[in-house]
Each structure stands twice: as structure tokens, then as C-alpha cells.
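For this section, I looked closely at the sequence of one protein beside the C-alpha cells encoding its backbone, which the following lines show:
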Amino acid sequence: GKEADLEELRKRLGEAEKSGDSRDAEVAELQKKLGLEELSKKLEAEEGAKMKAQLDALRKQLEDSEAESRRRGEELEVRVAELKAARLESEGKGEELEDLRAQLADAKEEARVLEDQTAKTGELDEVLAALRREVAEKEGELQA
């Protein structure tokens, strides 16, 4: 690959320089190519380092994001548990409320029954009073 091409260029440059020929143009061309290849290799290494740094930064962001996500998940689990507890508590209060409503309904029924009994007692009192008057009248008639 690139390393082999670079070695080939270095070799050709060395041969051209040793032969001492008047092939200055070829030597200059080979030096130019070798320089460009080395520069290209250096840039690739720098790009690789930059990309690795970017990749490391992205990994760190992902880890931070996962940690934040876990933390939020735990907070949500706690909140859900709190809401469930509150719901159960309110259901318990709902049951207490139902019990109180039932007791109130019972008390109202007892009050109605007492009212009816009181009304009947009142009616009986009136009937009894009427009977007493009638008995008193009959006694009065008998004595007369």
C-alpha cells in the first residue's frame, strides 16, 4: 500500500541521486512526489488522531448520556413508586370514605326509623288521649 509506494519512491530517489546523471528534473519530480507522499501520510496520521479524539469524545458523551439516562430512569422509578403509594393510600382513604358513607346512611336510616316510631308514638298518644277522654265521658255519664 502507501508504505510500499513510499519505499519505492525513496529507493528511486536514492538511485537517481547516486547515478549523478543530469536527470535533475527526474530527481526534483521524485523529491516532490516523496514530499507529497510524506505530507499525505502525516496528514492522514493527524486526521486519524483527530478522528480518534472525536470518537473518544463521542464515547464519553454516550457514557455520560447513558449515566444520565440511568439516573433519570431511577428517578422515574422512584416517582412511579411514590405515585403508586399515593394511589394505594387514596384508595385506602376511599375505602374509609365508603365506610363513613355507609355509617352515615345507617345513621340516617336509624333516624328515619326513630322518626317513624316517634310519629307513631305521637299518634298512639293522641289515640290514648282520645280513649281517656272517651272513658272519662263514659264514667261521667255513668255517674250522672
Summary: The mean pLDDT is 85. The longest helix spans residues 24-143.
